[in-house]
């Protein structure tokens, strides 16, 4: 059974930083492209950043470019999201997601293409 467990969320003032982590189990982690999505109250879930199974390809949403950095450690089955210069509009529940892919370089950016999801971790940024 696949489990994705996010951690590292919390409350921070604007301009601050947080580092999210996602621990994966029950899957061959290196065979999965990974992504972070977020959902703010009253809004649809949106793509934040994704990384290919090899780590060689990274895609970020325009809203987080220059501020957020995704990384993965295939030896430890973990995914991270370093979030800097946080803004109130970054407030959301952040979800880790996985999608199996035979292509080492693919990054999936649509929520409907992801196979497994964590339960999310709340990030609150105050002004």
What secondary-structure arrangement, pairings included, does this model have?
Layout: E1 3-7, E2 10-13, E3 18-25, E4 32-39, E5 46-51, E6 58-60, E7 68-73, E8 78-83, E9 92-100, E10 116-117, E11 121-126
Parallel strand pairs: 2-11
Antiparallel strand pairs: 1-3, 3-8, 4-5, 4-9, 5-6, 7-8, 9-10, 9-11
Q: What is the chains' assembly state?
A: single chain
The DSSP helix count reads 0
Structural class: mainly beta
Beta content: over 45%
Query: Unreliable runs, pLDDT <50, ≥5 residues?
Result: none
Measured as a percent range, the helix fraction is: under 10%
Task: Please give a structural write-up.
Strands 2, 4, 5, 6, 9, 10 and 11 form a seven-stranded mixed beta sheet that branches. The protein has a four-stranded antiparallel beta sheet with strand order 1-3-8-7, with no helix packed on it. A hairpin with a 6-residue loop joins strand 4 and strand 5 (46-51). The protein is 0% helix and 50% strand. It has strands at 3-7, 10-13, 18-25, 32-39, 46-51, 58-60, 68-73, 78-83, 92-100, 116-117, 121-126. The chain has no helices and eleven strands. The protein is globular and about 40 Å long. With 127 residues, it is mostly beta strands. The model has no long low-confidence stretch (mean pLDDT 97).
């Amino acid at each position: 059974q696949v489990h994705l467990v996010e951690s590292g969320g919390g409350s921070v003032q604007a301009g601050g930083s947080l580092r999210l982590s996602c621990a994966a189990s029950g899957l061959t982690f290196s065979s999965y492209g990974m992504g972070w999505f977020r959902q703010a109250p009253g809004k649809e879930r949106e793509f934040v950043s994704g990384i290919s199974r090899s780590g060689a390809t990274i895609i970020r949403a325009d809203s987080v470019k220059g501020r957020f950095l995704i990384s993965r450690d295939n030896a430890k089955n973990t995914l991270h999201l370093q979030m800097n210069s946080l803004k109130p509009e970054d407030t959301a529940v952040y979800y880790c997601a996985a999608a199996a892919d035979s292509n080492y370089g693919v990054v999936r950016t649509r929520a409907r293409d992801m196979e497994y999801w964590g339960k999310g971790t709340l990030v609150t940024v105050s002004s």
